[in-house]
Model the fold of this input.
Amino acid sequence: MNIVFPLSIILIPYAVIVAIILFFVFINIKNLARYRAEDVISFGALLIFLIGLVFLGYFSYHYLSPIDWTESIAISLPSIKAGI
Done:
């Protein structure tokens, strides 16, 4: 028996992780606006965080964009008999 599912199903956990990261970015920027980053260290930490986020986003897109996400993955399960 074969189980077939689209390769794009792998993008669901990736999208959940991206949504969580964007939530924390929103909270970080909201707190920065609310409490005002008056010292250089907090502003520098936020800048490093955002640069790292852009860096990871760029390379994530660079490596994931050439993949054909419409392909299907077939897993053969010989231990499961069809029609039982």
